[in-house]
Backbone:
């Protein structure tokens, strides 16, 4: 005899058994994390670990493809053939980074279409830094030096992220980011050492505008970072937002001296006791404004990505139609 009442008991039991099983799986997962093991796509993982990774990796992927826009803006105006070729290669690399990262996120059971829909609707975040405009050619060198420099500082620890597909993508990305940082620094060095006064002023102006937003790339202070504690516990993040920001500042001071530019912070001062540079207050209200959609270029950036998606619809349709035809041919042949 089957009744709803009789159905309920086994279901409850099954749920209890499942959660007991899950508890064992979770314990094993935590033990693997503690032992420094890497987690692969097919391994069991807690839902919150999976969601955290989808959030971070997809935001990272979005940052790479939105990050193509401020620099892409200068490809047609690069001052020499050499600089144009370098910039083209760099912007293309960023597109490639986006693709590795979307694929890494897809291994966690989300689709590219879902991730892009979240970007286009404004639901998903991307790095605050790409909502600032590139006003002069010196901005391009400064992005390489400071923005790619900050990206490397943040991303090298991610090559040891506990989720192996993300860690593997990051190894390749970091190698390319290192070239990006150097080409930017080299471009600024040429302008500072061999350029005119006007070029030197242009570099200083770009550094003044990009310095503080670059420091914001590392995310809010540790004490106000809701995701850090759990992400560090799981080995997704290996080094905290504040520690990475400090390491970046310490590295930049000497590089600025070699370049001959001033970093726009009157409080920047070596602290012997800490073995690091002290620095002035970061405008976190500005950061949250930009993250919240109200930066100088948020609307423009999102509109450009949505337009690219709409303009590319015929390419996606054609590729799908071709794939279907090939499949039908193969089935006929079989
Ligand atoms: N912009 O709790 P936390 C590049 C959000 S790639 C916007 O500390 P978490 C290459 C955060 O999502 C640059 N939002 O978060 C390139 C969270 O919001 P949610 C991108 C930010 O994840 C160069 C909330 O604030 N790099 O530059 C930002 O533990 C040149 C609370 O923050 C990556 O994505 C921000 N700056 O730590 C391309 C690296 N910071 O999601 C072209 C991977 C924080 O809870 C040209 N990601 N938020 O709603 C990470 O390492 C981490 O996700 C952090 C943030 C460190 C960015």
Residues:
């Amino acid at each position: 005899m089957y009744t709803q009442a009789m159905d309920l008991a086994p279901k409850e039991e099954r749920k209890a058994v499942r959660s007991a099983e899950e508890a064992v799986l979770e314990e094993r997962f935590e033990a693997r994390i503690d032992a420094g093991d890497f987690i692969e796509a097919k391994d069991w993982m807690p839902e919150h670990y999976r969601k955290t990774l989808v959030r971070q990796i997809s935001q990272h992927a979005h940052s790479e493809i939105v990050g193509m826009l401020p620099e892409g803006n200068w490809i047609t105006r690069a001052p020499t053939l050499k600089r144009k070729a370098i910039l083209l290669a760099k912007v293309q690399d960023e597109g490639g980074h986006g693709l590795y990262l979307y694929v890494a996120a897809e291994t966690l059971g989300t689709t590219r279409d879902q991730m892009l829909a979240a970007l286009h609707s404004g639901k998903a975040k991307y790095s605050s830094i790409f909502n600032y405009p590139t006003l002069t050619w010196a901005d391009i060198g400064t992005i390489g030096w400071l923005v790619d420099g900050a990206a490397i500082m943040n991303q090298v620890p991610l090559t040891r992220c506990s989720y192996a597909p993300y860690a593997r993508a990051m190894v390749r990305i970091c190698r390319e980011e290192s070239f990006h940082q150097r080409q930017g620094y080299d471009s600024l060095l040429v302008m500072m050492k061999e350029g005119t006064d006007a070029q030197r002023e242009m570099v200083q102006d770009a550094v003044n505008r990009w310095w503080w937003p670059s420091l914001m790339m590392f995310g809010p202070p540790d004490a106000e970072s809701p995701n850090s504690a759990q992400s560090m516990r799981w080995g997704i993040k290996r080094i905290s937002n504040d520690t990475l920001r400090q390491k970046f500042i310490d590295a930049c001071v000497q590089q600025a001296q070699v370049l001959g530019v001033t970093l726009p912070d009157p409080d920047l001062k070596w602290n012997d006791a800490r073995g690091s540079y002290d620095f002035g207050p970061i405008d976190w209200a500005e950061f949250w404004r930009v993250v919240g959609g109200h930066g100088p270029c948020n609307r423009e950036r999102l509109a450009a990505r949505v337009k690219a998606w709409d303009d590319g619809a015929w390419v996606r349709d054609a590729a799908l139609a071709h794939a279907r035809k090939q499949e039908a041919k193969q089935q006929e042949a079989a």
